[in-house]
Amino acid sequence: MPELPDVQLYIHALEPRVVGETLEKVRLASPFLLRSVEPPIHEAENRKILGLRRLGKRIVFELEDDLFLVFHLMIAGRFRWRPAGARIPGKLGLAAFDLSSGTLVLTEAASMKRASLHLVRGAGNLGQHDPGGIDVLECGLEDFRRVLASENHTLKRSLTDPRLFSGIGNAYSDEILHRARLSPMKQTRHLDDAEVEALYAAVREVLQDWCRRLIEETGDGFPEKVTAFRPGMAVHGKYREPCPDCGSRVQRIRYAANECNYCATCQTGGRLLADRSLSRLMKKDWPRTLEELEEIRASTVI
Fold first, then answer.
1. Is the pLDDT of residue 263 over 70?
2. pLDDT digits (tens, 9 = 90+) for 165-221
3. Distances (CA, A) of 229 to 156, 174, 261
4. Which of 29, 93, 151, 196 lies 20 to 30 Å (CA to CA) from residue 115?
5. Is 136 left (phi over 0), alpha (psi -120 to 50) or beta?
6. What is the pLDDT of residues 11-38, one digit of tens each?
7. How confident is the model at residue 279 (pLDDT cuts 50, 70, 90)?
């Protein structure tokens, strides 16, 4: 799912292409994309685009007459910038938004269509689409500390809770926790002052760094490959690859449809976190440390 740096990248690429232009036509290819009925979507047509903004992981187009298009790309939704009048791709295409400067195409590479579009009238109604998390790039340390301690969850869960923190998902939470040298399973209310400060600094450093890197890589072009797996990431998507800081193999735990990547040496003092499925299967044979894991792997090599 596009997270804060990816959303900022889209906004950076879209602003010079759409702001000040008139949205001439909205073409919907999927009846499941549009999740609002009032006002009707045709009211967005022939309205000038006044600006763009981020609302959590959502991208908002501000139109004339106090109208807002709210896009939530979910896991597989992506924007494509094409020449004016471009057709909507048959298999992946959800919609096209025609402007004189070009056509913005929305696609979704998934069998289950989860991306959504709402047309909203009025800033008050727009607020209903805000999950409520604080902007981690704008908040101070004390506000960050207060929100972090408001509920007692694992750090991984709290960082990715949109009601607590805005724009952080599975990928960048892995990178943040690695930068902060903290276990993803540590409870939020068990952090000391130094750990809270380290986490606050890591959140800001990682997100600001990736916003800058992605924009520099894209330049004046349009991002065609927005992904949760970046070559320059330290641990996310790097299972069994060497940690760039210590050289130990990156570990993972799986839960539901997600996984968490971490470095045991850098983040958990060498202790392996229990994978729900594998640890239940292996029970007492589940390795507790990196050394035990490497011994098991060595003994099974033929």
1. yes
2. 999 999 999 999 999 999 999 999 999 999 999 999 999 999 999 999 999 999 999
3. 18, 11, 12
4. 151
5. alpha
6. 999 999 999 999 999 999 998 999 999 9
7. very low
